[in-house]
Amino acid sequence: MKRREFIKVSTLLSASAAASPSFLLGGCAAKPLPGTGVISSTPTICDMCFWKCAGEVFKEDGELWKITGNADDLHSGGRLCTRGTGGPGAYLDPDRLKKPLMRVTVDGRQTFAEVSWEVALDFISEKMKGIAQTVGPERLALLHHGAGGHHFLHLLRAYGSDSHAEPAFAQCRGPRDVGFRLTLGESASSPERTDMANARCIVLLGSHIGENLHNGQVQTLTEALNRDVTLITVDPRFSVPAGKSKYWLPIKPGTDMALLLAWMNVLIDEGLYDKDYVERYTIGFEQLAKHVRQYTPEWVYLETGIKPDIIRETAREMAKAAPATVVHPGRHAVWYGDDTQRSRAIAMLNVLLGSWNRKGGFYIPEKVGLPEYPLPEYPQPKVTTADAYPGKWPFASQGVTNGVIDASIGDEAFFKGWIVYGTNLPQSIPAVASRLKAAANSLDLLVVVDTMPSEMTGYADVILPECTYLERYDDLRDSGERHPSLALRMPAFEPRYESKPAWWMTKQLGERLGLQQYFPWQDYSEKLDWQLQQVGSSLAEMQKIGVKNFPRKYPLYFKEGQNVKFRTPSRKIELYSEQLAEKGFDPMPVYTPPDSVPEGYYRLNYGRMPAHTFGKTTNNPLLFELAPENQLWVNPLVASEWSLQSGDYVRLGSPTGVVSNKVRVRVTERIGPDSIYMAHGFGHKSKRLRLTAGVGADDSELMSNIKIDPIMGGTGMRANFVTFVKETTTEIHS
Ligand code: SF4
Q1: Atom of ligand 1 minimally distant from the CA of 216
Q2: Atom 4 of ligand 1, nearest CA residue
Q3: Residue 450 to residue 280: CA distance in whole angstroms
Q4: CA angle (446, 12, 142) in 5-degree steps
Q5: 10-residue stretch averages of pLDDT, the chain, 734 residues long
């Protein structure tokens, strides 16, 4: 069926009365103390964001009581963040997807109908066979985010396709990882390999640790602050870390590159860089010294608004603490389209300070290294994801979501089918609405797998309800870290309703496609047990302890004077990038002034709030209680000009005529008069998200000026402008 109508998910399922938060909380309110009942616990890995903290699910008499951190988990410091403790809300949310749904036409109107798993899986597998036979399996793409995506990637590869993309790359940390790899031969890793625990100076550029609550990172920054670390925060907004800083540099938006180049200018000009480190490990220093000569603090002041003496003073602070200085690589790095180059500048600044793989700078991550379960080799795909957008973004190390979407539009489109796992594309890809609709109208198959009826489900042919992380096995956690460790996620409960784990769905599809040899387990726990036994553990042991720590085999840092071969073509740190020059890009990071703000408009500045992980958690009844809506930060001068007061509701308008949902104003001097700010993840339109639908504004839909990074395809989102469309009502819900 083509020409898909977007189906408001409100039209499906039998409606039940709208639930209030207090009603929802009735089933999961934490008891003050255990009673006389029988207490049991089950290990888990939190899935409320992607940081993978290990936890324990406590039950009393078989009923969910609470989720806490696993005390043995060094990655999380034994603690969960606010969102992690809100995990019961995800399990108990009455708005969860409950049964497989298929698009049908009734009386000329498209809607969804509940179907059995057999019907849904038969339909998908027949469509997949059709795509493989007519155009080849590579024309089926996976768009994914989160743990269960690995199960679908395994299915896809067994089927013969390696076409996949994650918003976590082109809409988040891709430019950072590519920029670091081009320079150092390695990425900044996730979790970030920053050694903030031992740092004496930490520099944050537009990185809002404490607002984005990556648990272990917040804890180490807090410990560093308790040790009197020198914190330098560069941010146009007076963010939470800005309030803890020795230096807050309220930079003009879009000029961070100029500041980074000026800092390098000062370090080189004053001879404050680590000469031994630079001589031993780098190539291209002479070109760098020559290149940054033009970026004097006096010149850069005119661009950034940061006074020359502050630029010099902060550069000296960094040098004084080096190599125990971290210039943090950040995480959401897609800003202005020159983001790979800005990330390269951050990497280069760290190199001048000699902090890469040195104590107090960055450490060398190590993982346990679980062996792969023995399975047949995957068939070799004839084409790759990048063949869908030939000649574009030569350094994209993963599939680029925008490229996949654009290559899915029209009758001659490269891609003929999508499986979308755990990612709500209407909110995660900026300004995507019309392209998403066009792609959905072109595809032969569109499957959405989720726990919640997100906006993306409205585009699907088939919706598969995944059970939550508390009801399933997933792959073991084996991340590169300071302390190698394994962690287990296992079911604490049977899946509610008719939801199923992703490993089960992919096994069922694999068997229908004749790929059963790739799914030899009856239960996914068999695979995990085999892997654990290869490293001297077992599923039975992990079911008891949840986390197993292993000793490191390799040093945490470079040894003094150690010879190192970096994973770059020259085997050195590449300050001058021959790789970029060969492809026609600047071999050095170059500053380009940002677009100026159109008359009557304001820069759209967005970020995170501690209680939510984008739009993924805004309907969670526990977290909704904590943070029901986003707020719009407005400078008092702007508020006065528009006669706005804190508590008013306004709509925002984009230059292309998109008008947002209503959002509550907060008048504050913490934002400058050229910008407004809001947290991302609100303004849901899916009415089946009964708590959060119509609450707050969605920044993504207001973006119309996307700056694509020509090096790796990232979508720069910080060059967008909005104006006010004032409302008089004080109602939150539309
Ligand atoms: Fe869960 Fe918080 Fe850890 Fe994310 S940082 S995995 S939400 S506890």
Answers
A1: 5
A2: 49
A3: 50
A4: 20
A5: 56 35 37 70 96 95 92 96 95 97 94 98 98 98 95 98 96 96 96 95 92 89 93 95 96 97 98 98 98 98 98 98 97 96 98 98 97 97 97 96 97 97 95 94 97 97 98 97 97 97 98 98 98 98 98 96 96 98 98 94 94 94 95 97 96 95 96 95 95 95 95 96 74 37
What is the total residue count of the chain? 734
Distance CA 350, CA 668 (A): 34
Write the single-letter amino acid at 146: G
- Strands of the sheet containing 201-205, edge to edge, are 247-249, 230-234, 201-205, 325-327
In whole angstroms, give the CA distance from residue 189 to residue 194. Answer: 9
> Is residue 435 within a helix (H) or strand (E), and if so which, with residue range?
helix 433-442
287-300 exposure pattern, b = at least 16 Cβ within 10 A, e = fewer: ebbebbeebbbebb
Mutate to test the pocket of ligand 1, among 53, 79, 212, 331 (most ligand atoms within 8 A of CB): 53
- CB-ligand 1 contact for 611 (6 Å cutoff): no
Tokens of 456: 């993306």
84 lines ligand 1 (CB under 6 A): yes
3-state secondary structure of 531: helix
Find where tokens 């964001």 sit. 49
Nearest CA-CA partner of 21 in 688, 687, 626: 626
Rounded-to-integer distance, Cα 88 and Cα 620, Å: 9
* Nearest-angstrom CA–CA distance, 727 and 705: 25
Number of Cβ within 10 Å of residue 734's Cβ equals 12
Distance (Å, rounded) from C-alpha 445 to C-alpha 417?
Answer: 5
Please, is 18 exposed, middle or buried when counting C-beta atoms within 10 Å of its C-beta (0-12, 13-18, 19+)?
A: exposed
Distance, CA of 634 to CA of 663 (rounded, Å): 12
Atom of ligand 1 nearest to the CA of 76: 3
Any atom of ligand 1 within 6 Å of the Cβ of 53 = yes
Q: Find out whether the beta carbon of 81 lies less than 6 Å from any atom of ligand 1.
A: yes
Alpha helical stretches, state H, 47-100: 82-85, 87-92
In ligand 1, the atom with minimum distance to the C-alpha of 55 is 8
Q: Which residues contact 339 (CB under 8 A, 6 or more apart)?
A: 175, 176, 179, 333, 709, 714, 716
How many Å lie between the centroid of ligand 1 and the Cα of residue 111? 36
Q: Output the pTM of the full model.
A: 0.93
**423 CA to middle of ligand 1, Å?**
18
Separation CA 531–CA 524 (nearest Å): 11
